[in-house]
Amino acid sequence: MSVQSITLNNGLQMPEVGYGVFRVDEGAELEEAVKKAIEIGYRSIDTAAIYGNERSVGNGIKKAIDAGLVTRDELFVTSKVWNDGLSYDETIAAYEESLEKLGLDYLDLYLIHWPGEDKWQQPWKALEQLYKDGRMKSIGVSNFQVHHLESLLEDAEIVPVINQVEFHPKLTQNEVRAFCEKHNIQVEAWSPLMNADLLSNDTIQEIAEQVGKTPAQVILRYDLQNGVITIPKSMTESRIKENIELYDFELNEEQLDKLDALNEDARSGPHPDEFNF
Question: Residue ranges of the NADP-dependent oxidoreductase domain (predicted)?
Answer without folding.
Answer: 28-264
